Amino acid sequence: MEQLTNYFGQNIKDRRIVVTGGTTGIGKAIADVLVSLGGRVLIFGRDHEDFKNAVADLKKQFPDREVYGTPADVTKKEDINKIFEIVDTELGGIDILINNAALAAPGITQETYEDYKYIIDTNITGYLAFAQEAVKRMKEQKSGHIINIGSMSAESRNPESTIYVATKTAIKGFSTSLRKELNPLGIKVSLIEPGAVTSDMQTDPKEVQREKVDKLEMLEAYDIAMSTLFCLSQPKRCDIVSMQIRPHLQII
Length: 252
What we know:
Elements (H helix, E strand, L loop, with lengths): L1 H8 L6 E5 L4 H12 L3 E5 L3 H14 L5 E3 L7 H15 L4 E4 L13 H29 L2 E6 L3 H4 L5 H21 L4 E8 L11 H9 L6 H12 L9 E4 L7
């Protein structure tokens, strides 16, 4: 059992990690797990209150661990620069990028141009921009791991979420191509595609989400965090290229 514990923590301790959208939902759950295993973790999100609460919670749970961050928006170049200034000055580089910051979106008939452009800038351009900045640093050390959090929406393609489907389908293609580009540089790329997960992105109230979890129709954010840990815990010879995680009774 000790060997198993060491196996899952071997690639996390002292690693320099950035979690985009790490203040709530899946991102926060991932941060919890990686900080608990000794990762040096930088989180951020758009909402100042969510950021403050997330950092306070992490420091309360793990007072001896390193947690960094600032409120930031992945669509703003000045905020991207600010995050990577912290990466360079406080972390001294980056080993792992969790590309997670994303927004839910309805069908194209329900949004204005300005609305869906911001969603695209968040869900697609944000992933590209953070991957680019991370790779600039990772290629110098000939190592690194980028995990893109996608969605089963890229496969199910429901008509009521056209814009979201477009963005997550883009991330699926981006991840496949990015892996081919970066693997020769010693950098791993993984895609994790969750099904329905409890979060503030869901339209259902929290009590309804809880009922769906109990009925095996929805996942917990922690489930995705543990899947992320599994991807990160593999030896250098082994890549988890893509992973789909669905609730037992979510039939897609």
